[in-house]
Design goal:
It is built from 24 helices and no strands. With about 550 residues, it is an all-alpha fold. Helix 3 (about 70-95) runs parallel beside helix 6 and helix 17 runs antiparallel to helix 19. The two termini are about 40 Å apart.
Length: about 550
């Protein structure tokens, strides 16, 4: 029975990753083949990225006999990434799954049900850990003349052991989140706050590394070794086990991973029925009648989409992640006391006066993070089976689509304006055209991303997702505006610094780029009221 349950969970996970709807349209073999190819490409890209970042450092560490630190940091990154990405998945799949009571009513042991749920969480965690540890092994091999087959075997073994530790922590935190949400009347609000806190914590840990980190890391390997021994001993043991084939350290690391996992699994299996069948202890809210206020059709549609966005934590965390990263990057620039952009420019010999470029490049950076906000990119797909309600109303497609567009812009534009205002506090050299550009360029790219995402979702989105969360996570059409916006931002910047640098003023170039993007935005907005958009809207759901 455990084998059947585990297979069912992994197939459901594969359906979610491939964007297929379970039970209606099973994923084809070509889809799984494409997923495998994509995984291989991610592995290759991760290996290249880790080698580029840690290549020189790895050589210095090899000379000091501290190669294990590369594996230690890769393990730490895999642990944090797995914990962040699977925390709320573990909560939903283990403690708040809709079929828990149905399975418990069958002659199936609770331990088997729990094992299948925990197994799917472990599988996800192992993917992240395996990729990063293999990337670390590739870096060490490329920079030190190769490593032995036994070292690679230990990399795989540790990649299977470390996810047990992250799965243990995920299960404990998921139980805590479930316990809190069951005792509050505002479950969605609590989940949203916890999601934001988790994202903010990961961001702070990631951005908390200062610009001198890599040189400090290479120059003071002994101090870092002591820090690992004191605070991150499991990762220290893992690094030594892989780098030096230390079997004693491998046994210690295995015990640290297996024993807590076994204890947590035993405790949860003994109390699984009581946990998942516990009644909601929150007080029911009383409805209070209030006077209704009239509003325009477009604004009514906008409020409807905003209500859906704020009432779904998965929708917020997947589609609105760019908003948090934009604010976080700007705050980091303020707290650091100097501009990260300025530090990059000062290390480049081509710029005699880096200060004149910082405001323009800041505008490009804020515009780049606009691509990560995909609210409009899945706004049609999240309607799902309820799309017929909108289509049955005497409302034009333009009004509905404009409402979805505004639900994206009323969140994205204020954030970009806030980031521009915050950045003014750390910019040393300010000019009137540069300040205006720093506000207008991100707005132009936010409008481009919102319009392109909406049109993409209108033509390429699907309506057969079983939930809003799955639509927000699996909408393939969201990738199109992300890639288009990123290519435009990076392409515009590269074009100037490779071909137009010295021929045209950087501020003038930024104004030209902003004007072109606004013109494209107007063309796309006019399409929303065209017969083509209306025809496509009428075809949806048929």
């Amino acid at each position: 029975m455990l084998k059947i349950l585990l297979k069912n969970r992994l197939l459901a996970l594969a359906d979610q990753l491939t964007g297929q709807s379970k039970g209606k349209k099973a994923a084809k073999l070509s889809t799984y083949a494409l997923l495998i190819v994509l995984g291989i490409l991610i592995l290759i890209g991760c290996c290249a990225g880790v080698n580029a970042l840690f290549g020189n450092i790895c050589v210095r560490l090899a000379q000091r006999g501290e190669v294990w630190a590369v594996y230690g940091f890769a393990g730490a990154a895999g642990f944090l990434l797995a914990l962040f990405l699977t925390l709320f998945y573990a909560q939903g799949v283990i403690f708040e799954a809709k079929d828990n009571e149905l399975l418990l009513s069958m002659p199936i042991s609770p331990s088997a049900i729990l094992a299948s749920r925990v197994g799917s969480v472990y599988f996800l965690n192992s993917l992240f850990t395996l990729v990063l540890l293999c990337a670390a092994g590739y870096t060490v091999s490329a920079q030190t003349g190769g490593i032995g087959i036994l070292n690679w075997i230990l990399v795989i073994v540790c990649a299977l052991l470390l996810p047990l530790l992250s799965t243990t922590v995920s299960c404990l935190l998921a139980w805590l989140v479930s316990y809190i949400t069951r005792r509050t009347g505002r479950k969605v609000l609590v989940q949203t706050i916890l999601s934001l806190v988790a994202i903010a914590a990961l961001f702070l840990v990631t951005m908390g590394v200062n610009r001198n980190f890599f040189s400090t890391f290479a120059e003071s390997a002994g101090d870092i070794a002591q820090a690992f021994r004191r605070s991150l001993y499991p990762l220290y043991a893992m690094g030594l086990a892989i780098a030096e084939t230390n079997w004693g350290m491998l046994a210690i690391f295995a015990a640290i991973c297996i024993v807590p996992f076994a204890i947590v699994y035993y405790v949860l299996s003994r109390s699984f029925i009581r946990i998942v069948t516990a009644r909601n202890a929150a007080k029911k809210q009383k409805y209070e009648a209030t006077a209704l206020k009239g509003s325009s059709v477009v604004w009514s549609m906008t409020k409807k989409d905003l209500t859906r966005f704020f009432s779904s934590p998965p929708y917020m965390t997947n589609a609105g992640l760019g908003l948090l990263y934009s604010i976080g990057l700007t705050i980091f620039a303020m707290v650091s006391g100097d501009s990260v952009i300025r530090n990059i420019l000062e290390k480049t010999d081509r710029f005699s006066d880096p200060g004149a470029y910082t405001t323009v490049i800041a505008a490009f950076v804020i515009s780049f993070f606009a691509a990560l906000t995909t609210i409009s990119g899945c706004s049609v797909s999240v309607e799902g089976k309820n799309l017929w309600i909108l289509k049955s109303m005497p409302v034009r497609a333009k009004d509905v689509l404009t409402g979805k567009l505004l639900s994206h812009l009323v969140l994205a534009i204020p954030v970009s304006v806030l980031c521009s205002i915050l950045y003014l506090f750390v910019a040393r050299i300010l000019t009137v055209p540069g300040v205006i550009l720093m506000f207008l360029m991100p707005i132009a790219f936010n409008c481009f991303n919102a319009l392109f995402g909406l049109i993409s979702n209108l033509h390429f989105g699907k309506l057969d997702y079983p939930s809003i969360a799955k639509a927000a996570k699996s909408t393939t059409s969201s990738l199109i505006p992300i890639l288009a916006t990123i290519l435009l931002v990076i392409g515009s910047a590269v074009l100037y610094f490779t071909a137009l640098h010295g021929k045209i003023d950087v501020t003038v170039y930024g104004i030209i780029v902003t004007a072109v993007i606004f013109a494209v935005d107007l063309c796309m907005f006019s399409y929303l009221g065209s017969t083509g958009a209306q025809k496509r809207w009428d075809e949806l759901g048929q």
